[in-house]
């Protein structure tokens, strides 16, 4: 079964999660935690994707709706789970590329 993804919502939420000034705390905390696991050699991509979705993308989606959404928009309709997981995979791939280059966030 093919799931359609709203590319505008995907781009908007990914940019919001990675670049919004209020979200930098979440972004840096996730990056520091994943840096620690990659340095120790216990980095698991699937767990990292779930961790990013839970601790970065979901709070970004909630914050985005609070700031820019309307009273009738719901999280499930605007940013469904499969969309948030795709965004988390993109961010995980970005982190993994940085880690493989030796770029880690300070712990």
The CA-CA distance between the termini, in Å, is 41 Å
Number of domains in the coordinates?
A: 1
Structural class designation: mainly alpha
Our estimate of the beta-strand percent is under 5%
How many helical stretches?
5
What is the alpha-carbon Rg in Å?
A: 14 Å
Number of strands: 0
The shape, in one word, is globular
Biggest sheet features: none
Write the layout of secondary structure elements.
Blueprint: H1 7-19, H2 24-40, H3 45-68, H4 75-78, H5 81-100
Helix pairs in contact: 1-3, 1-5, 2-3, 3-5
Could you characterize the architecture of this molecule?
This protein is mostly helical and 107 residues long. The chain has one domain (7-100). Helix content is 73%, strand content 0%. It contains five helices and no strands. The longest helix is centred in the middle third of the chain and has 24 residues, at 45-68. The protein is globular. The relative contact order is 0.19. The model has no long low-confidence stretch (mean pLDDT 92).
Task: Name the features.
107 residues; 5 helices; mainly alpha; 0% strand
Summarize the structure.
This protein is mostly helical. The protein has five helices and no strands.
